[in-house]
Amino acid sequence: MEADWLRGLLGGLMIGLAAAVYLLGNGRIMGASGILGSLVDGSAGSDRPMRLAFVAALVAVPALLWLALPGLAPLGTQASRQPLVLIAAGLMVGIGTRLGSGCTSGHGVCGLSRLSPRGIAATLAYLGAGMLTVALFRHLLTVI
Amino acid sequence: MQIVIALLSGALFGAGLLVSGMVDTARVQGFLDIFGAWDPTLAFVLGGAILPMALAWRIGANRRTSLSGAPLPGPAARHIDARLIGGALVFGAGWGLAGFCPGPALASLGFGGWPGLVFLAAMVAGMALLPVLDRGWRGRRAA
User: Fold this and answer.
1) ipTM of the complex
2) Which residue of A has its CA nearest to B74?
3) DSSP character for A143?
């Protein structure tokens, strides 16, 4: 599909705009793992209501859009159907993002756009680890 | 005011993840699959997302407070330590394994079926587990 990159760019602009609204509106960095993680471990403090609102909209709006315009995501997530892979991956993403203080949105979108040394270092590390993991588990072990 | 801004931002983020295709785990793994059928879409998403955000940092540099009155973040921290890199490596490995990172895992909750739900539950458990592991590590170091 030749429109893939265009959809990617358009969606990317929307993601960047979301981060810009969060920064200039609320003075906070829009990091999905920080927002969800602080709600999970109770460290959100007085930011709790606004972070809950963010998560609620992040869950509800794509679900409604997907119902209204199924063509936008015709294949769902295509996620692995191997429970062990999903559980191991989920635990690693949960622990890793909290240990490293960020994920693709915080370190990637928000960090790279201000040339943050920590954001750049973390992004290189998780991209490298992700590529190595896919190479190993898809091409050598053929389990994903 | 803060709530309305957070709702608007979460809505835009979720819609952007859906439009960009980043809720599709096969597409994300396709980007990471540099030895297979490489899918460059994620690079366009990241590039597109950085543009408005770079502008926002510029605008923010000339202001002290956000629209809601909360202070804007200070200069970016510079210290790179084992915690940052170790965490990013563990995250990246999990990301490659399932093709989910935290934003898309939440955004696809409504249509991701049981695999998305299993991943999200494990991710939340991991987030809850880290402070417990942290206390264990600190205790062992002190002993």
Assistant:
1) 0.96
2) A27
3) -
